[in-house]
Write a structure and sequence with these properties.
homodimer, five-stranded mixed β-sheet, about 450 residues
Chain lengths: ~450, ~450
């Protein structure tokens, strides 16, 4: 991609309204633009990150055996009356009347809707177990939207729902999602910690939040320091028994603010880590909370009807864009992990229009692309300082600087954004260094050809 | 994919409310489920088709040099007051008040919003030309939603917007989209005919509709019979001059109902084709209709500010699912074109549980997948007749039937859905026949791994 053709409206000044790093950098890097309070447009750079995060979330859901559907954003009120949540939900629910005066709402979540879908289809125990998910825009009419897309009103969420015959089977679904979440966040370069959590308005009796640690986190979290070092399992077979993995992760103390009581906390003070955290996922087992009032039952092998046992499993897809930035930035801008970087490499042409510089940039661009990397070439007429500042701001993992002076010595400069230092290398060595130093994720490679 | 694990709630009976083939088959094949009038959930089979269509639309937009963004569904009313359309739009616009009483709306289209985005970013002639598009859910509160997703209220649309310094440049953008549309619809196996059209509520002075022919079409269309045979250009270079292609396609008479006047029609009656058609795309050049009232101007090379010249270009992504079915089905069900088929091959295991049948199905599945094909294996305990009926209904391009009797003779049966006849072949010959007979589209291959 050539920057001269791309749409990257970078801001030199920091916008006043942005209180936290992710909001500030997303606005400055031209990733988003506010439409109204808590509602944003995603510009090309931000869109690429959003789509890569979505692709990783989707890939891990598919691996776990979940099937993708897509429910609409606008739901009928009567669905929520069936579960009793229409009145409970309060002002965060965006309520709408259509032209015929029918009561509708912009879905803040989809338990009722998926229960209705499954109710129409499922007849017997042969129709379960099943995991269905979708990735769709939701709306919560926050009273004070803030922190950019981190606490916006219109947001993208992955929500998965499990349908099982009994608790044992339902626990297996819960475990699949528990492990899928560990892997999902790790693939984005995040350290996410599962914590016993309150079930809140979703209801239910078993729940974990997945929290990433960052100083700007919305709440205090507490855990045993051992949890910080725990390794996410590799090569998971989702058809195998995942209970040992879940046991390992839940046997060590971790709790969000509202679940932590210093008086009863079993961890010695020296071993207790207390930090700010950002919730990026939340899983719930809620049994028959929706299936019973909404009449979702199946005939068991014994011929007796039984309420379907359910759970729901959410990931804040758009929120993760901000979460990753909060966890990975410096004063100059964002530092993207390879798997979700909008481009893996930025090539800075210090003298656009110079035949040697132009052809070296084109050559490197092609070779990087052949290796599966996404490349942005700054071929604009900006001065060098501004180009470097933009590259640092937008946070591509690698920068390759091509200038006439270096080329005379047969060299280009390579900078790893996370480390900062520039090395002079031959173009081939630069290529090698960048390609071998980039961890491509299968779900995001090739997502943006050209 | 194993059918025993997939979520495919097929209906044996035809739902009463479905008046046209696409609505009927989409409900029966478990592709969609109605949520409320004109609002649908996409179940896994329908979702796969929707995503494949979206992928082709996206790929051709990218090839044409358009950049993808994503604007929110909920827009502030003040944006539409700037253009003067807030009052004009009438009851089709879903109007919403948020918890603070602010007037919002669910976007039926995005001219105002993209103009605001570009206005904030563009300063000089160097910032144009630019093509920006998004693929997002829209809402039009139809007074009588019908025909399933063909005339729904919540629908998925690709809308692209062009920004240029003058008419000449803007015409180049228009031509890119004109040609991109020819190619987009052809890649889906559709014959789409561009027709001079009324500009309607978008406004402007140059407009074409892209119409596919189907008996259930919503309007009458008229064209010279030569147009039916015209070939879509292959290997288009979008940076080249596309005017000759556009001239070729627009020099032959074609007009939608409201533009056709028998009194002035230049085509002899014998050469005039009159058929029902379905609009699947619409492109508009509207100059400064939005840029002038909204103050989107750039400084020209001469230092003088000038209104940016714009156009907009829409494709009905969700509507295309229905359009393709209307254009390609028989009494038994859907007949998917290869490029958008939810799966390319359905393998029917006539005796699930039989070791030979199971292993042959698994072997074929793996080999088809290695060749890049999407495969659905019916491994359920249903009787053969029901399995065949389901395969015909869901319309996969190829069926491969594996049964114990055939296997004894070293044979399986292959059926091309569009032709109907079954051939007995060795497994290797069947593999060969199906793989070589399938036209994979680069944008949809590998979209659904596993």
């Amino acid at each position: 991609m050539r920057l001269s053709e791309f749409f990257l409206p970078v801001l030199r000044e920091t916008p006043n309204e942005a209180q936290i790093a992710s909001h500030r950098f997303m606005l400055r890097a031209g990733m988003i633009r506010q439409s109204s309070a808590g509602i944003y447009s995603w510009l090309p750079l931000g869109y690429r990150v959003l789509k890569k995060i979505e692709a990783i979330v989707r890939d891990e859901q598919n691996r776990a055996g979940a099937h993708e559907v897509l429910m609409p954003t606008i739901q009928p009120a009567e669905l929520w009356r069936e579960s009793g949540r229409y009145d409970d939900y309060g002002k965060e629910m965006l309520r709408i009347k259509d032209r015929h005066g029918r009561e509708m709402l912009y879905g803040p979540t989809n338990e009722e809707q998926i229960t209705e879908i499954f109710r129409a289809a499922a007849k017997s125990y042969r129709d379960v177990p099943k995991l269905l998910y979708h990735i769709q825009w939701k709306f919560r009419d926050e009273v004070r939207p803030r922190f950019g897309i981190m606490r916006g009103r219109e947001f993208l969420m992955k929500d998965c729902y499990s349908f099982d015959l009994d608790f044992e089977s339902s626990k297996r679904a819960y475990n699949k999602m528990f492990v899928a979440y560990l892997k999902t966040f790790e693939r984005m370069g995040l350290k996410a910690i599962p914590m016993a959590a309150d079930t809140g308005p979703i209801g239910g009796d078993l729940s974990h939040e997945f929290i990433i640690l960052a100083d700007t986190g919305e709440s205090e979290v507490f855990c045993h320091r051992d949890l910080m070092q725990m390794a996410v399992p590799q090569g998971v077979d989702y058809r195998a028994d995942l209970q040992p993995i879940v046991d390992e992760w839940t046997s060590v103390y971790a709790a969000a603010d509202e679940m932590h009581d210093p008086a009863t906390c079993p961890v010695a003070e020296a071993d207790l880590v207390s930090q700010r955290g950002i919730e990026v996922g939340h899983i719930f087992h809620f049994g028959s909370k929706y299936s019973k009032p909404m009449g979702l039952s199946v005939t068991g092998p014994d011929g007796v009807d039984t309420d379907v046992i359910m759970g729901s499993y959410g990931v804040g897809v758009s929120r993760l864009v901000g979460g990753i930035i909060e966890a990975s930035h410096d004063d100059d801008g964002i530092i993207w992990p390879d798997s979700v970087a909008p481009f893996h490499v930025g090539i800075v042409n210090l003298k656009a229009g110079d035949a040697d510089c132009d052809s070296m940039c084109a050559d490197l661009e092609q070779k990087f692309r052949n290796a599966g990397l996404d490349v942005l070439v700054d071929d604009t007429g900006e001065r060098a300082g501004a180009k470097f500042a933009t590259m640092d701001l937008i946070g591509l993992p690698w920068q390759v600087v091509v200038g006439p002076r270096g080329l005379k010595d047969g060299q280009v400069e390579v900078k790893r954004r996370s480390e900062g230092e520039r090395m002079a290398l031959t173009p081939n060595a630069a290529l090698d260094r960048v390609v071998s130093g980039t961890m491509l994720d299968p779900a995001t490679t090739g997502l943006f050809p050209g």
